[in-house]
Design a protein that fits this description.
It contains 13 helices and no strands. The longest helix has about 35 residues. The protein is globular, with a radius of gyration of 22 Å. Helix 4 packs parallel to helix 6, helix 5 packs antiparallel against helix 6 and helix 11 packs antiparallel against helix 12. It has one domain. It is mostly helical. Keywords: Membrane, Transmembrane, Transmembrane helix.
């Protein structure tokens, strides 16, 4: 057998080129995740530099416009991202109005029902992804609880508009990059193959209204239980329900529900590691950007894994807006996530049982 010099170049095989390597990574959402991270970091950094971090929630939720339109052709993406951004801004304005008037529990509950209904119906009608109302409900719940001086209503809404505008521009920026690159480097970009199907008849779809009923009943029950137990952030239980329940026409899976519950609980551990050392503001902004990046990287592949990033993202935003003892925040989040997850799991089991009875009777 001939001896082969290990140091000699292997002429029979070519090393993988950079373009081939980039092509192999296109299945991941690096482009989307990078846009989302930058869109939330830039407005927060600006607010930190001018000493107005009390407005961080409006910038952060406006920036969540960048979470929509992934993998869609740009003409279609313009429609979906614009719709998602306008819906988020409308919900923020609605929540600001309630906060400005010092709305009581009954008005806030009615507002929650309205936000759930409108966001679920519009997500289905416009083909938005993610198809659940979690980010819209999260924005409403946080903004509605922040006290708003009457003279600051306009400036706070403008901060949300600015955050949404930056996110919109970044989400659409790939169009220009692709035009500049032309067809010379196709491996640098993802294939834009997702179709956001517009369904004008979704408003008459029984499955959509069944999903609305499941989310409303679960959210109200979880919120009422959290308040009856004296927990400090009842809306976390509501958000846990919305995070676990699938969108209309999706399977009600017990394993998926457990993945989401476990992902949220493990995400709390990550949040504790970040927040307990009491890092400076700039570190918190960096954590928010990294968490946004990780959430977008995994949300299309495994929602439970994405919640490892979504949970510290949510807690860090809340802590940045209204700092409070981290231990209390984490304990409330664990208890209310578990409570909301159990309520949502009960709904999933009831739906599965009803489906089995329907099949047997058929």
């Amino acid at each position: 057998m001939a001896w082969v010099d290990p140091a000699a170049p292997d002429r029979g095989r070519r090393p993988e080129s950079l373009l081939q390597f980039l092509r192999s990574l296109r299945g991941w959402q690096f482009e989307v995740a990078s846009r989302a991270a930058v869109s939330v970091a830039v407005p927060l950094a600006v607010l930190a530099s001018v000493g107005r971090l009390d407005w961080a929630a409006y910038a952060a939720f406006g920036a969540m416009t960048s979470l929509y339109g992934r993998n869609e052709p740009y003409r279609q993406r313009m429609r979906t991202v614009t719709a998602a951004g306008l819906l988020m801004l409308a919900i923020i304005a609605f929540a600001l109005t309630l906060a400005n008037f010092g709305a009581g529990l009954l008005a806030l509950t009615g507002g929650l029902v309205l936000v759930l209904t409108v966001s679920i119906v519009l997500c289905r009608t416009l083909g938005l992804f993610p198809g659940t109302p979690i980010f819209f409900v999260f924005g409403y719940a946080v903004v509605a609880e922040i006290a708003v001086p009457a003279e600051e209503f306009g400036p706070r809404l403008l901060v949300a508009v600015a955050g949404a505008s930056v996110a919109w521009a970044l989400t659409m920026s790939g169009w220009l990059l692709r035009r500049l690159a032309g067809r010379r480097e196709p491996a640098l970009f993802k294939e834009l193959s997702r179709a956001a199907t517009v369904r004008p008849r979704a408003v008459a779809d029984p499955q959509v209204w069944l999903n609305v009923a499941q989310n409303v009943i679960g959210a109200l029950l979880a919120g009422a239980l959290a308040m009856s137990f004296g927990l400090g952030h009842a809306y976390w239980a509501v958000i846990a329900v919305v995070a676990v329940l699938p969108p209309p026409h999706a399977a009600h899976s017990v394993s998926r529900a457990f993945h989401r519950i476990i992902g949220t609980v493990l995400g709390l551990g990550v949040a504790g590691l970040v927040l307990l050392p009491d890092p400076p503001v700039w570190v918190l902004i960096l954590v928010i950007a990294v968490a946004q990046f990780g959430a977008e990287l995994f949300i299309g592949r495994h929602y439970g894994a994405a919640l490892l990033f979504v949970t510290p993202l949510a807690l860090t935003v809340v802590h940045l807006v209204s700092p409070e003892p981290v231990a209390t925040l984490l304990v409330d989040r664990v208890l209310e996530t578990t409570l909301g997850g159990v309520v949502a799991l009960g709904i999933v089991l009831l739906v599965q049982a009803a489906q089995r009875r329907r099949l047997r009777s058929a």
